Amino acid sequence: MGVLMSRRQTVERVQKVSLAVSAFKDGLREQPSTRRRAEAGTSRQGTLEQEVQEGEEEASAGPSQPEESSASKAAWERLRDGRGVEPEEFDRANRFTPPAFIRPKRELHDDEPPDISLEQREQILNDEMCEICEVWTAESLFPCRICHRVYHDGCLRRMGYLQKDSTVEVTETAHTETGWSCYYCDNLNLLLTEEEMYSLMETLKNCKIIPGTCLTLDDFLHYKHLVHKQQFERPMAEAQEEQAALQFNALDPDKKGHIEWQDFLSHESIQLLQKLRPQNALLRLLTPKERERARAAFLALDQDNDGFIGEGECRQVRHTWFRKHQKELLSCNVSISHVGPISEGSPASSRNGKSPEKILPATKQEEASIDWPSFLRENVAYILAARPNSAALHLQPPA
User: Fold this and answer.
1) How much is the pTM?
2) Angle CA(155)–CA(156)–CA(160) in degrees, nearest 5?
3) A Gene Ontology CC term for this entry (predicted)?
4) What are the CA-CA distances from residue 215 to residues 102, 202, 252, 260, 317 (Å)?
5) Tens-digit pLDDT profile for residues 88-116
6) What is the DSSP letter of 25?
7) Fewer CB near the terminus (10 Å): N or C of the chain?
8) Measuring CA to CA, how many Å separate 262 from each of 1, 200, 391?
9) Distance CA 2, CA 126 (A)
10) Per-domain residue ranges for the chain?
11) How many alpha carbons fall within 13 Å on the CB side of residue 38?
């Protein structure tokens, strides 16, 4: 009993300190002039000549141009820093301060093949305390399906990461096989290093893409044509344009006629990772949960336990599980460790009279066989692309 009381007192003390810090930060945010000076000192890293040039451009643009320039500059800074929600976009009353994201750095050994064993299973352990408030409250914590972090829904709301219907999505899916990705894992752009991010920003600027805007099919195809011509110095072929149109449709699952900015940014981020990093470096980005899901998918197909599956089976996995989770087929009673393809005879496959896409077995004598390391290398980009909570397919598998 003494231990329990001590833990409760500790929790209460942490909560009081957290509220005090939050109130102090809210007070600081009420001083706009101080905040602007602080942001100007930390976020603007250009030379004096650049600042003078920007000032002259704004002065010559007329009275309405400075506001547009300021909004555009804030959008580019938001993109650079990996912030998905700007404080001005929602009510900041009683909210926590969003974290400062630190972009990863490439290591010398990143390009070497990692040792990911098929036989040796990994133990999946989630954190015990909320990532935001660092308070333990047992069953009310919601785990991320990608990483080890857990969260309170109330803390996520105060951070501004849960709005409108997203609260229901978290509470209904976080403890299911479908799972929910936290704000770190949901944003594929945070996988880019600073150098890679600046490369992407230069491409977007050259193609006249404004951060935060939605893209229609014409906008998307025009962008793809420009990028292809800049990279290869020749026009895009008709087959490549058709593939780009298929990718647009995959990014617009609700058929709204446009794709959201965050979905476009995630697609471009995973495309850039494929372009600049070898597959071994991408394999090092996988978390233990993702590696366990990949093992479950491979072992479900390797029914004769010889360590090989057919090439057609590998492609079928890419078109089913690795593209997105099948939310309508999952139950809260399913273990979080069971994340491979659902078999035809399982209870989940017959729910509501629906059955998932079947992975048809093919004889290995009729096609090339793929071992476990090759399976990982060929599917790693699709595993990473399945991280966001959005229903969009951020990397459309080829037909």
Assistant:
1) 0.71
2) 115
3) nucleus
4) 28, 18, 10, 7, 29
5) 444 545 556 666 688 999 988 889 999 99
6) H
7) N
8) 49, 14, 12
9) 27
10) 215-247
11) 7
